[in-house]
Amino acid sequence: MVLERGRGSHVWDADENEYIDFMMSFGALIQGHAHPKLVEVVSQAIAEGSHFAAATSAEVEAAEHFRHMVPSAEVVRFANTGSEATMLALRLARAHTGRTKFLKFEGHYHGWYDPYLLNGHSHPPEQLGPPENPRKIPDSEGIPPATFRDVVLAPWNDMATLERIMREHGRELAALITEPIMANMGCIPPREGYLQRVRELTREHGVLLILDEVVTGFRYAPGGCQQYYGILPDISTFGKALGAGFPIGAVAGPRSILDRMRWGDNMVLHYGTFNGHRLTMKVVAANLDLLSQDGNAAYRKLHAIGDSAIAGLRDIFRRRKIKAVVQGFGPMFQIYFTERDAIHDYRDYCKYADTARYSRFVHSLLERGIYMTPSNGLHWIISTAHTEADVAALLQAADQSCAELA
Questions:
Q1: Alpha helix (H) ranges present in 22-81?
Q2: Is 109 a catalytic residue?
Q3: Which pLDDT score is estimated for 368?
């Protein structure tokens, strides 16, 4: 696909074919393409100068909007990508605790920082090792094996196994990092009470909880999944929807941790020419203002449109007698072709998700004007630009594609 332009919920390719976009730049375009208010803000800001090597009022305004929305954000630090944010979060945790090891879950993706690149791709189940001691499988060449000595790997959504691993390694860990919803294997929600118990376990062992909200932040609620599920992390990271299509990353938490970045002895270093980029900060402030307007009406719309699409897809699969589940709710979901009632974790995904059939299904949708990635490990995204008419078009295309599959 070579896309040339977009407006609202629609995109056009190089041959002027039109599609309804349910990929939304991997979830970054929370306001859709070329939102009029954001176009106005960018046009004015660029005319005044895009970036200065100094503090700006735009950064302050963006930070104030951010702090107003995110419950755990006493302080926020801006970076340029989600990967940068999670790198900084781990560095802060190590400095704050004096420990070096951290726990990462199978199937979760926290950016392309070397120590995070373990078991983030699907593999044959026989290669994964036992749940209590998973085999470490690098996601990339070019990473020395020594990089992973300080990584403790665990299965997600399996509380009994996590409790055993924490009893063994808890006092060695600087941090436990987790997505609140597993977004790197499609859309896998946490089991009831799971995140709350993770929060308890980390406190019991003096481990900092890093909640990676790069995908979920500003999507499910004004304060992200930490607000939706009632979790107070020690450090949280953000990206994607925060920038509404502009490159952004952010680390938030208490001053006692983030003040370690202040200049002086024993500081935590965080450099970057484009940190707090003025143009991006203008967009962030305007985007968060749009999401907060009318008593957070944007979130009611995101959930209503998404739930309508999910219900319609489930009805089609049921009526067409196709074995598939639609997981997620509201602004983000994924379809799995499987005999199972649900996909609960990374190992379920590796063993039971028919990713080849999903790819065929999405390619059929592309022919019918629905733009989505054929990767089953990503997810369907709803933006504030999507409408019930878009959902109706999706369901019509999905029904025709299911007839082909059947």
A1: 24-27, 36-47, 57-69
A2: yes
A3: 98
Asked if 240 is an active-site residue, the reply is yes
Residues of the chain short of pLDDT 70, as ranges, are: none
**Phi, psi for 354 (deg, rounded to 5):** -85, 85
pTM above 0.85, yes or no: yes
Show Cβ contacts of residue 24 under 8 Å, excluding neighbours closer than 6 positions.
30, 32, 381, 382, 383
Q: Tell me the three-class secondary structure of 134-182, residue by residue.
A: CCCCECCCCCCHHHHCCEEEECCCCHHHHHHHHHHHHHHEEEEEECCCE
Domains of the chain: 3-35+295-405 (3.90.1150.10), 38-288 (3.40.640.10)
Which of these is catalytic: 212, 234, 345, 348?
Answer: 212
Which of the following is catalytic: 116, 220, 228, 240?
Answer: 240
Distance (Å, whole) CA 44 – CA 315: 46
The two three-digit tokens of residue 202, written as one number:
């980390």
260, 267 in Cβ contact below 8 A? yes
299 assigned to active site: no
The catalytically annotated residue of 109, 228, 299, 358 is 109
Element spanning 371, H or E: strand 370-371
Q: 75 forms bridges with which residues in the sheet?
A: 253
Task: Provide the pLDDT for residue 406.
Answer: 83
Q: What is the pLDDT of residue 34?
A: 98
